[in-house]
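Hi V.,

Quick status before I head out on leave. The structure for the redesign project is tokenized and pasted below; the design run finished overnight.
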């Protein structure tokens, strides 16, 4: 075609612009050929390695998702799939690629789900902390008469105050008002009136936050031996309170040197004139004035010391005098400052909220030492403390006028104080406690991983169903088992010949808390397994590149336009 049209132009009678016409014909034919034929050339392009997998979890912000990158958006949540049909729903984390970097948006994953990632590096885009309780704890195993203490943190993002209410048996037990637009710690308490398994609730205004399961055990009647220097009000009121609450009490009061007066309540009578190994073996706790204990004969002192250190006998020492420094007071130095005694104040009992009644506690207080646990404090002064002594415990207190609470009708604080001191001092029993732990909050209809402590493998029965535990290869006495509770409430577990219970929470309980747990767990995982491929790599790749057709269309149009114009003006 080029030769033909060129020859025709050459034969044209008008020789004006002959060379340009021949060149325009050739350019037009070449451009038409290039439009028709695929024209390519070898070259190199720079590619960015940006292939990532994006996992959406509850609480994610759709506006925070990246655009224009080669991604595979997936989720484990069916509700997210319904809201966003283009998202791919996967049944498990085992479907994830173990090579592509993973980005997680939202509240993240639970501890159990994170272990399934098998150390896969991730980038976590955490959701904002939701409104509600983000942290909470309470003493879920009580003795009758002990106070339930609930502590936590509430995230209030609204402009209104929030009233938290602790409820039990459809009755408000305690409440606190929390400020707006703040993350505020709180504390609530109450003394349950019943024993057994109870479920308290925590409400924010009228909205239920979650359940507080508590097991309240009846107080096991302890056998208490009281050694008093002389009959006094403190010993009299304590003896009466112990007897009213079912304790077995034997009281020995000194009349003169070597002569004693003995009383027996809820216990058979026997000779208390001389303390022996057989005598002390009949008691769980000994309560004695420091002046009496310091003047025991060497034989009685050795017997008492051995009973505490070797047999686990509890010892409560009342510092009624300065006394000589001995094994009784070595861990509890007492400071007796001179001057005006401090004003009566409320006490902080067992490191919890102070009682309602004020007490004149005197100037004497215990100087804190490492290895001891403060039990009762007033204005940062330690008034009672606990320390291990062999297999037993020594409780030391400078309080000698707690009977004034009873005289004022404040039986509640008196009961809480002496219940704490006695329970801390009492001999250890063989009850099974805290042998089961959970990796996360156990929720009904969701897999629950139980971590069991046992020296040898024993069958585990959950609600009558046998489940097989797996031994921890690093810690031989730890075993784990997975169980899915079919309904919320108390679950029965049998480990060998031991029986116990645990609580499965309803699906709607502690939603904010569970979200906060997932955010914290995923943040920790992301810190330990960071995605170091966030900085994308520049890759040079040799490819065959198509020449854009637009250039040939322009050449064809320009050549044809020139030929047409030249014909018109000739």
């Amino acid at each position: 075609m080029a030769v033909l049209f060129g020859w025709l132009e050459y034969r044209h009678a008008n020789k004006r612009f002959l060379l340009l016409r021949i060149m325009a014909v050739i350019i037009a034919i070449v451009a038409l050929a290039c439009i028709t034929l695929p024209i390519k050339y070898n070259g190199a392009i720079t590619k960015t390695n940006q292939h990532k997998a994006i996992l959406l979890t509850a609480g994610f912000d759709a506006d925070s998702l990246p655009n224009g990158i080669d991604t595979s958006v997936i989720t484990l949540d069916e509700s997210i799939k319904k809201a966003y049909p283009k998202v791919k729903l996967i049944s498990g984390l085992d479907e994830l690629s173990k090579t592509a970097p993973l980005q997680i948006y939202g509240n993240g994953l639970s501890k159990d789900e994170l272990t399934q990632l098998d150390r896969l590096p991730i980038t976590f885009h955490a959701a904002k902390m939701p409104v509600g309780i983000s942290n909470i704890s309470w003493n879920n195993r009580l003795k009758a008469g002990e106070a339930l203490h609930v502590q936590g943190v509430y995230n209030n993002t609204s402009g209104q105050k929030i009233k938290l209410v602790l409820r039990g048996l459809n009755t408000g037990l305690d409440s606190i008002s929390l400020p707006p637009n703040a993350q505020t710690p709180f504390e609530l308490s109450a003394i349950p009136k019943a024993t057994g398994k109870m479920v308290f609730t925590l409400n924010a205004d009228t909205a239920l936050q979650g359940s507080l399961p508590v097991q309240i055990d009846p107080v096991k009647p302890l056998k208490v031996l009281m050694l008093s220097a002389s009959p006094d009000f403190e010993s009299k009121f304590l003896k009466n309170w112990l007897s009213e609450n079912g304790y077995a009490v034997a009281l020995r009061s000194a009349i003169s040197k070597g002569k004693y007066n003995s009383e027996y309540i809820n216990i058979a009578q026997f000779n208390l004139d001389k303390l022996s190994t057989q005598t002390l073996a009949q008691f769980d706790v000994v309560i004695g004035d420091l002046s009496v204990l310091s003047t025991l004969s060497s034989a009685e002192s050795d017997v008492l010391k051995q009973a505490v250190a070797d047999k686990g006998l509890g010892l409560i020492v009342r510092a009624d005098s300065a006394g000589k420094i001995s094994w009784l007071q070595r861990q509890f130095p007492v400071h007796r400052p001179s001057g005006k005694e401090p004003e009566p104040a409320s006490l902080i009992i067992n490191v919890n909220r102070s009682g309602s009644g004020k007490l004149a506690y005197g100037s004497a207080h215990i100087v804190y030492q490492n290895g001891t646990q403060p039990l009762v404090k007033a204005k940062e002064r330690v008034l009672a403390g606990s320390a291990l002594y062999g297999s037993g415990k020594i409780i030391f207190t400078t309080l000698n006028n707690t009977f004034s609470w009873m005289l004022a009708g404040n039986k509640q604080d008196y009961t809480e104080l002496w219940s704490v001191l006695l329970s801390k001092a009492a001999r250890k029993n063989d009850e099974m406690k805290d042998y089961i732990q959970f990796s996360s909050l156990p929720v009904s209809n969701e897999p629950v991983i139980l971590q069991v402590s046992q020296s040898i493998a024993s069958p585990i029965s959950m609600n009558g169903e046998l489940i097989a535990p797996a031994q921890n290869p690093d810690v031989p006495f730890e075993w784990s088992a997975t169980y899915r509770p079919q309904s919320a409430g108390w679950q029965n577990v049998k480990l060998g010949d031991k029986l116990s219970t645990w609580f499965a929470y309803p699906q709607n309980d502690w939603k904010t808390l569970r979200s906060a747990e997932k955010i914290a767990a995923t943040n920790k995982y992301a810190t330990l397994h960071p995605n170091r491929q966030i900085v994308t790599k520049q890759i040079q790749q040799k490819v065959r590149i198509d020449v854009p057709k637009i250039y040939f269309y322009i050449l064809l149009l320009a050549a044809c336009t020139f030929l047409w114009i030249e014909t018109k003006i000739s």
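Above is the designed sequence. The radius of gyration is 41 Å.

G. will cover questions while I'm gone.

Best,
W.
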